[in-house]
Write a structure and sequence with these properties.
The structure is a homotetramer of 281-residue chains. Chain A is mostly helical and 281 residues long. The first copy, chain A, has eleven helices and no strands. In chain A, helix 2 crosses helix 3, helix 3 runs antiparallel to helix 4 and helix 9 crosses helix 10. Chains A and B meet through helix 9, helix 10 and helix 11 of A and helix 3, helix 8, helix 9, helix 10 and helix 11 of B.
Chain lengths: 281, 281, 281, 281
């Protein structure tokens, strides 16, 4: 999260603030992160509980107060973060900067639009920030492998989604003509919704074909969805295999710098130094 | 789409028409493609909206007029395309030639058969033509990889579909005998529909087993479908892996023409020229 | 299917019968197979149609007659097959011999137990025999690859099924205790049926959790099923990849007998003879 | 299950008891295991039958007696096991020691809390112990391969689960705001339950979107779930492929001890001794 060590020179207060807020290596920094983690989880649970009618009737006021307390806490934290970095505007525009604003905005919105406070659950995204204190740092490495695999598959997945939507348009229209509004296929958008529900094998059953011809078309669509389901799975499998396979080539021995170790190598083949075997912990 | 450069010699008008309609490199050609893309999307949305009862009652006439305007526009475009190519009959028989006719036919059909205009959604296929203007040209390369993988799996998928249908026949009949018309399994075709809904894990729930024996047979069918689901996924995964793995062999270095580069090579191993790394953009 | 050339020496009639019935190379043999294919398909359609109440009321007698005609035809064919082979008992005990008997038995059973004629759909298995006449011979090669992959995965799939059933027992009981008969979880076997429906992601929706705790347990089960779904898919993918990868090692060049060609080799690397590239047609 | 041969020296009775109870090589040990297998299966079936109302009314007393007989038998067996090992406390703390207690506890609990005897189905876990007598020993090897694959994927699966839960929180809240209590989305926890049901493609259909906007959001969630479904499958596939690929490196030739044999090698490449080809039986 930004090369903080260069951003905070000997400016005293800002440097200390930065260490506490942005880093988790010092006791103070770690305590701050643990407190933040607790506050985020509590505030999400509070929002969820408030949506339950029976809880709201009994503890409505307490939850309302809690919501505003958390909002004030997070707003203060946001201001401190802006003060701790050298270029506040850069931080405000970064991913976490935007998430921080989104995490306090709904409370103020709820004054004008009642109910908007449910949007506070977006605070769940703030949890990404405190992963490291749970020693989940290596998880981020894994997430990166996943993201690399997904990004490499982007073009294939787009082709795939366009194909799925085109099939949904054509098959949805066909079912609208075959079954008609009498059997729940009220219009083409609704039939497309049914086609997507069917192709993804979700199958809610709120709309189902009643005629023999409709059931035949649905069967064809299902078997098609079956085959289509295989494509994204295959894509991600291959890309994940590639992402994993590419690892040894980018991993240099910490001892001698030699590369090209085997996938299952635990020791450098040149000098015998133990390799950091992240992939299989 | 067809080697246009040889088809259009110095015949003046036809050559210009061809450049505008079939190519997207010139400003005029690009403007034409963008306009066409807009027209196709608008006409599909119009057909969809017309199927919604409340919209039809209010804007029925406007949508009816729009539908005919788009039909006339697309018919004109079709005639221009026929004029722009040297061998009109060849074009009329090609995939896009047939799609072009299908995209205007339903309007005329709807004069005789009311409701046929819903078939106009087939215009969605025309979108394939304008992919390139969105700089989605490389997507077609990806689609080709997918198609290669699917084509290579054709025989395995046929075996798989025959197996699925045979199981649907046998298990559907079994459930018809076990549950009977009293529980929704009215006849064998309907039971086969249920078997396919179950095996593909769609599970609408419009027909469900009620007896203990029926629920046991259904459980067996589900676990079977589970294993069967794995087969097409596995097939496509393997073929996709093969299709990806074969790439380096067909990719020659743009500098020296050397082949056989590693899957993850970014530079030619003979002369160091940067390789066009399409697979992982 | 069986090394017929050695079984039929110069015994005249039996040899000719064998050629017609068991082989598809001669015009007579091919005509026999095509007629048989038609008869099997017609008889299956007849059984299906008979199960549809409205059709049965109108054409019941015709379908009844057709059923017995097909039964007599298939019985005659079975007797001829027994006569055409040297060791009739061996044939009667073989897979196809048993299927042939199963294909005529239900008709006679239906005299004693009305409704048993629905079992005639087992005739669908007889179609396996006539695959070759449709030039689908190479499909059997593909089916063999699939079967090899499945057989190699047998032990892993058994472990997997035992795990799934154990989870179904434990989670089914848990839901029976949490939700109880009031919400459709009448007893443990029924709850196990629900657990299997949920884990396989079929999700009929005939039984669903109503309490908050039940919905929580169900969510855990679903996410578990998600991960479990990945196991058979992964197993079959890996085995299919192995089955495909092993091919080059077992394929000798038809010209010089050299082995160990690359997966994508189209020509022998020793002598340049074209290789039979079955895997990717 | 612990290196028993060293634990039981010449202490006579304990050694004999250990051989019978913990091993299956002697006739007495095998008979004990078979009897235990039967007792476990019978006791599980008894618990299941007791949950069926109609069976309970008729055979309630018999099942109650059977339950206590099995409990006494298993309690005795547990005491014998404790006597047979040198360090009883170590055994009591081991996995199977805990399972043994859990298998008798619910009977005593049911005296205080009626209905608790359903928990006796946990006895299904005891079956793990008697796998070997069914010559299913090699299955445990397979289970180990699966476990290795799953363990290696642990970090990736955690990332995946966190991602799924975060999406469930955000999308569930969105649907709660869009559809509201009027359409079954009563509160955020219930909406999250719906989001998980939808993302895992289970799709019970007990709660379904009714508004156009809700159906659109649901469609997006389904297609997202589609892509997400691919991730765990891909992960497990890759890890399974690795787990299989690593095998030859750990398998030494029983003849000369050479390692590094090819995946499909059936004979040692150094001395020609037949290799134990567990992976593909």
């Amino acid at each position: 999260m930004s090369s903080s060590s260069e951003q905070s020179p000997g400016e005293g207060f800002r440097a200390r603030l930065h260490t506490i807020i942005f880093e988790a290596d010092t006791p103070a920094g770690k305590a701050f992160d643990v407190a933040l983690l607790g506050a985020i989880l509590c505030s999400i649970v509070a929002v969820m509980l408030e949506s339950v009618a029976s809880v709201r009737q009994q503890y409505g006021l307490a939850l309302y107060v809690a919501e505003w307390v958390f909002t004030v806490v997070f707003a203060t934290e946001y201001v401190l973060r802006l003060m701790a970095v050298r270029r506040p505007l850069d931080y405000a525009r970064s991913f976490f900067g935007v998430v921080d604003v989104l995490a306090i905005l709904p409370s103020f919105l709820s004054i004008v639009f009642p109910g908007a406070q449910s949007l506070l659950v977006v605070r769940v995204l703030r949890l990404l920030r405190v992963f490291r204190i749970l020693k989940l740092g290596h998880l981020l490495g894994q997430a990166e492998v996943l993201m690399t695999a997904l990004r490499a598959s982007r073009a294939k997945i787009t082709v795939f989604l366009v194909a799925v939507l085109s099939i949904a348009v054509v098959m949805g229209t066909l079912m609208y003509l075959v079954e008609g509004p009498a059997h729940g296929f009220d219009n083409i958008p609704r039939s497309m919704y049914w086609a997507i529900v069917t192709m993804t094998t979700v199958g809610f059953g709120d709309i189902t074909p009643k005629t023999v011809l409709g059931q035949f078309v649905a069967s064809v669509l299902m078997l098609m969805g079956y085959g289509i389901l295989a494509v994204p799975t295959g894509i991600v499998s291959v890309e994940l295999a590639n992402a994993t396979r590419l690892r040894p080539d980018t991993q240099a021995c910490p001892g001698c710098g030699a590369q090209g170790h085997d996938l299952d190598a635990r020791f450098c083949k040149s000098c015998g130094t133990g390799l950091d075997w992240k992939g299989h912990p």
